[in-house]
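Sequence only, no structure available. Ideas?
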Amino acid sequence: MRVAATPCGTSTPNERQPPAHGILDSPHAAKDTATIVLAQRTLTSGPPWLDTAISWALLYRAAAGTQPETLRLFRPARVVALGPSDRLSPGFDAARVAARAAGFTAVDRLAGGRAALFHEQTIAFAWTVPDTEARAHIRERYEAMSNLIAQALRRLGVDARVGAVPGEYCPGDYSVNARGATKLMGVGQRVFVHAAHVGGVICVDGAPLLRDVLTPVYASLGLAWDPATSGSVADELGEAGTGRLWDTVFDAILDEVAANYPVEDGALDSGLVGEAWGYEEMLTEQTADGPARR
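Reply:
I predicted one. Tokens follow.
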């Protein structure tokens, strides 16, 4: 698959995907069909790459017209997600080794962008959107997701703003930062002809871990970044290292989603998870971590 990507942004497969019957043409368009919300507060049972595989399964279902708009909000395993440009770097293998040495699984990002870090004190999101004109609405989806996260954090008293911080990891115009000084959230997209995935990560706590792990990864990839630009919600609210804010931030995001979209609670069904397990060979080959045990 040939992929064109923009930094910390969007990957677009060139081959045509199956047609779908999207339920909205723009994230801002009025609609009478609910967004399915999959809220998952505990780690997914299975290998760390399974979360990425579930996002792939949701996206392919949406492209085929069998999955409505779905937001999966979840607690991720310890993963360093490497983007398409990272895979072209001479230091790609060394970056994966550095991730594994820190106790993290290296996986290929579904969205575009450069290396990003997930751990149990972050919140991951995967928004799958059927859209018959998916490429035409890339900016609208970015704006919708970034503004939603920023507003949710403002609910908690964080001076959250949309925009890149100079020197941040995986720089992007739709990052969410605190005070214009530290990055709190990164976001990217994968776009098919008739569906799109908007995915990213919010650092609730554990910014020192993020900095410690990404420093050797970025060095291996030959990428410049300033670790001091990486922060957390807990840093902003005087709760760094306590681990007490994860549910609070999770609930604030759910409240903000419900305030802006008609929503319907959902759950991961066994069929979807089974489809995700079907990506085992591809993802374990990509990560070079060996076969997983079910």
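The radius of gyration is 18 Å.
Hope that gets you unstuck.
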